[in-house]
Amino acid sequence: MNEELPEIARADEWVPLVIRTDYTDDSAWREVIAELSRVAGAREWESPAHLVDDRRWDGVTSDKALVAAARDEELSVVFLADGVTMRSPLRPLLALDLGADDDQDLDQDLDPVYYQELIDSPPPREVRVVPDAVHLVHGNLQLANVDFPEFAEEAAADPDGVVRDV
After folding, report:
1. How sure is the predictor about 2, in pLDDT bands with cuts at 50, 70 and 90?
2. 126-129: strand order across its sheet
3. Pairing mode, strands 126-129 and 93-97
4. Is the four-CA dihedral 117, 123, 124, 130 of positive or negative sign?
5. What DSSP element (H or E) covers 18?
6. What would you measure as the largest C-alpha separation in the chain, in angstroms?
7. DSSP-assigned letters across all residues of 46-89
8. What is the pTM of this model?
């Protein structure tokens, strides 16, 4: 896949971005959409998700999706509907942290020992999120109420390894 991915134009920074990268199961995709829509309508403060359903994204890796999504400077997290999403009954989306690179400018001011610890154990950049928790994760990251590693810890403590909306 050598062609450049299409630009994503979101009208609202408070709307989570969900990109479909797996086209093996249309029924599973419809379930993801239904769950996102159901949750969005359940709470007045939640906006519907911005869905990217464009076959040019088929098979795109998380690294390529991060690069493409990073063009949107207001975006802190992007959610991928990948093969795991389509195969798992939980339909967990892959959340990718776009804010992790924001701290690179600070690295030069860090204590060398602490900096080496960051290099040896970088913070997590991805976590699985069930569709009904997408708005929770997106909103908290946009507001900087919660850091991405906190969601990764939450997923690690979950028996299915996902972030859930409690």
Report:
1. very low
2. 50-52, 17-20, 77-81, 93-97, 126-129, 162-163
3. antiparallel
4. positive
5. strand 17-20
6. 51
7. PPPPEEE--GGGTT--HHHHHHHHTTSTT--EEEEE-HHHHHST
8. 0.85
Separation of alpha carbons 132 and 13, rounded Å: 19
Those residues whose C-beta lies under 8 Å from the C-beta of residue 57, and which sit 6 or more positions away, are: 5, 6, 19, 20, 21, 65
Residue 131 pLDDT exceeds 80: yes
β-pair partners for 50: 17
Q: How confident is the model at residue 104 (pLDDT cuts 50, 70, 90)?
A: very low
- Retrieve residue 40's tokens: 């969005």
Tell me the sheet residues that pair with 15: none
Least confident segment among 7-16, 65-74, 82-91, 96-105: 96-105
